[in-house]
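Quiz preparation item.
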């Protein structure tokens, strides 16, 4: 039994007041932890006040983390600082970080080790660009990204890691992968984990889907065997829409 996670990635959106209003409103509405876990990834500058309003279920996450504990890395955030604030989750290797900020498979792997060291729950993002999908290279890409991200990670650590399959061509474009396509690739990622560890471990790891998830397509996606929740951008910004998505996961 894998408890799905509905996560909102706000990216570089929302003022502090709007962020606080959202959390205040949504916290009262989210269902019990045993049905679905919920998370919001906000800009670093809002994390402190949001964490204070973090509920039993709704948890707050950072959108990025540095792999070193401290040092001369201007503009970066240390995992120790995030832990100290009470941040629960951290996103690692989002495709926007990979494409705009030179995030590599190697840095993703280092960040994953660092997040685990400080007991931040990592959500590791993988996904192919349109060209790779068109050339039937999706499996090759997600296999490479997953394998490299997980280098040096032990079987004991694995169940505490969340994976997110986000095809780059589906992010912010309104083009969602069909539920079958998304399920197929999530299944492939589970297969990679099985090859690296075991079937038992692979069955425990939660794999989210992300890319233009909205109230219309969420039910079908969440009904699929290998999809354990969603990582949502645009449709997570409005509290009513986010609650709708959370309830859809719960019912799926
Ligand atoms: P959209 O839901 O806006 O496509 O964004 C997806 C995403 O990047 C979540 O991390």
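Solution:
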């Amino acid at each position: 039994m894998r408890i799905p996670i509905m996560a909102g990635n706000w990216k570089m959106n929302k003022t502090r007041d709007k962020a606080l209003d959202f959390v205040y409103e949504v916290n009262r509405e989210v269902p019990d932890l045993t049905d679905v876990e919920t998370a919001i990834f906000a800009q670093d500058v809002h994390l402190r006040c949001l964490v204070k309003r973090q509920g039993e279920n709704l948890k707050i996450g950072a959108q990025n983390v540095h792999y070193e504990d401290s040092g001369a890395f201007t503009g970066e955030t240390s995992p120790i600082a995030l832990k100290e604030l009470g941040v629960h989750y951290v996103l690692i290797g989002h495709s926007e970080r990979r494409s705009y900020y030179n995030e590599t498979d190697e840095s993703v792997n280092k960040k994953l080790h660092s997040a685990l060291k400080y007991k931040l729950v990592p959500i590791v993002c993988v996904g192919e660009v349109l060209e790779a999908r068109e050339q039937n290279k999706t499996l090759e890409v997600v296999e490479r990204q997953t394998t490299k991200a997980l280098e040096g990670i032990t079987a004991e650590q694995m169940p505490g890691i969340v994976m997110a399959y986000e095809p780059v061509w589906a992010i912010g474009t309104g083009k969602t992968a069909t539920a079958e396509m998304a399920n197929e690739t999530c299944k492939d990622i589970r297969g990679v984990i099985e090859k690296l560890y075991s079937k038992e471990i692979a069955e425990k790891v939660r794999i989210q889907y992300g890319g233009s998830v909205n109230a219309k397509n969420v039910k079908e996606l969440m009904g699929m065997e290998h999809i354990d929740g969603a990582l949502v951008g645009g449709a997570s910004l409005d509290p009513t829409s986010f609650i709708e998505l959370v309830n859809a996961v719960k019912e799926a």
